[in-house]
Amino acid sequence: MWYLILSICILGLITAVGYAAGKKPVDNARRTIPAPPPAGCCGQHETCERFRLITAANRIEYYDDEELDRFRETGAGAYADDAVEEFREILYTLRPDETPGWLRSLRMRRINLPDALRDEALMIAGEQRPQPERRPVGNNTAPV
Length: 144
Fold this sequence. Notes:
The protein is mainly α. Helices cover 40% and strands 4% of the residues.
C-alpha cells in the first residue's frame, strides 16, 4: 500500500516539474496591445473597410472618369500607349486618399487597370492604409 502511495506522489512530482519547466514566464514589458482604430474607422473589423480594395458596397462612385467606361472588360495587357496615358493622368490627378476608392470603382465597373500602372496604383493605395501601432503594456522595466 505504501508503495502505491509513494509511486503516485513521485509521479505527481515528476509531472509538476515537467509542467513548470515547459512554462515560459510572461514578460509584461514586451507584451503589446493594438492601438485604437484610426479616425473614420468603426473599429469593428480586423481591417478597416474604408481601405479595402474589394468591398460589398453596391454603389459605383465616379471620379470624373466616365470616359474610361469604354474600356470595360478590356484585358489588362491589351491597352495601347495612349489609353495607358489616360489612366495615368487620372491616377495622378487623384488625391492619394482617393486612390483606393478609384481602384474599387474600376473593379466594380469591370474595367481592368493597365499592367503598366498596376504596381504604381497599388503602391499609392497601400501608402494610405494605416499602419497598426503597437504600444507596450505594463511597466517598461525588465523582470529581475
